[in-house]
Amino acid sequence: MSRDVKKVVLAYSGGLDTSVILKWLQTTYKCEVVTFTADLGQGEELEPARKKAELLGIKPENIFIEDVREEFVRDYVYPMFRANAVYEGQYLLGTSIARPLIAKKQIEIARKVGADAVSHGATGKGNDQVRFELGYYALEPEITVIAPWREWDLTSRTRLLEFAEAHQIPIAKDKRGEAPFSVDANLLHSSSEGKVLEDPADEAPEYVYQRTISPEDAPDVATTITIGFEKGDAVAINGEALSPATLLAKLNDLGRENGIGRLDLVENRFVGMKSRGVYETPGGTILLAAHRGIESITLDRGAAHLKDELMPRYAELIYNGFWFAPEREMLQAAIDHSQHYVTGEVTVKLYKGNVTVTGRKSPYSLYNQELVTFEEGAVAYDHRDAAGFIKLNALRLRTTAARARKAQ
């Protein structure tokens, strides 16, 4: 354990864990601590984090609280949704995509205040430690990283509470008991893991869900909305232009009211173990369906299929923490190029947990009604051309079958 750290920037939520980390850094490394708290749309009041940091001896000029909701959606969520990124076929990467932004802000603050280290509150078993630290090193190769959960001996909640009490760290009454599960949230999603959710055979209790009503309790009448897109990004709902964060928040409200976006998943963590989580991504679930809807009429078949081939690799890079890696940026360039004509409107119906695309239109649509109609017409497609097309494609199949027949 290095002891020559002079100033460290801590990703600070104001909760029990990061408050203990703050004091632990002060007592263990004898260093100056700078806190950074990001408003990612987690739905919590952030001023208490400032007050607690001040109470723990942090100078006002060393407390950074920043509203990054617009940047989060514009520069991280939207680029990811252009790719239709889904990890292991289901997970919309809500936690994963927030980590590179937090890491970037910490490094920016470290440069501003002259800090020589950064720190986070991720445990030694999870993915987040990887995501944070890959981000740090990609942006500042020589930075010192302090990961308390891999260093200290505070290995239980009891030990954390004892440390907090010994160092006069305020603990809310509702935080003294064992938490039934842990929660991470931002404007894109909320994730719940651990304790009551650890056995994948047991259904998650209804109280775990915080961002959606149950589909059974959703209205019996469908909600229909139209989402406008420009170059792959959602820009309007029902004709009203909205900023990225405002639009996603509106979709979250609509998704919540209609029981949309629940996911109970056992996933493969990058560190090698499986974990069970309950995710809620109401707005993101609507956005994904709508984006694929507008792509269906604006993307050429080859481009669309190539995107679908690249998507699992792209999603895995984000999940594993390689947002700032050259290969993710290369894939992003290809994906963004594909979105040049992904402009138009998609109508979706929201009903009891389901999102159904019911209409799509675009000034750049490749859908040609004359080509697909069953009626004869003066169009570029000649039915007789299909015979040669089929025979050419069947040539290798016929050759293989002839060989098999000779071998009998």
Describe this structure in words.
With 408 residues, the chain is of the alpha/beta class. It has 3 domains: 7-69 and 96-178, Rossmann fold; 184-361, Argininosuccinate synthetase, chain A, domain 2, CATH 3.90.1260; 377-407, no CATH class. It is 40% helix and 19% strand. It has helices at residues 16-29, 47-55, 69-82, 99-113, 128-139, 157-166, 244-257, 282-298, 301-320, 326-338, 369-372, 385-407, and strands at residues 7-11, 32-39, 63-67, 117-119, 144-146, 182-185, 190-193, 223-230, 233-237, 240-241, 262-268, 274-280, 344-351, 354-361. The strands form 3 sheets. It has a 5-stranded parallel beta sheet with strand order 3-2-1-4-5, sandwiched between helices. A 5-stranded antiparallel beta sheet has the order 10-9-8-13-14. Helix 7 packs across helix 8 (282-298). The protein is elongated, with a radius of gyration of 25 Å. The mean pLDDT is 94.
Keywords:
about 400 residues, Rossmann fold, 3 domains, 5-stranded parallel beta sheet, 5-stranded antiparallel beta sheet, ATP-binding, arginine biosynthesis, Arginosuc_synth_type_1_subfam
Would you kindly provide a brief summary of this structure?
By secondary structure, this protein is an alpha/beta fold. It has twelve helices and 14 strands. The strands form three sheets. It has a five-stranded parallel β-sheet, sandwiched between helices.
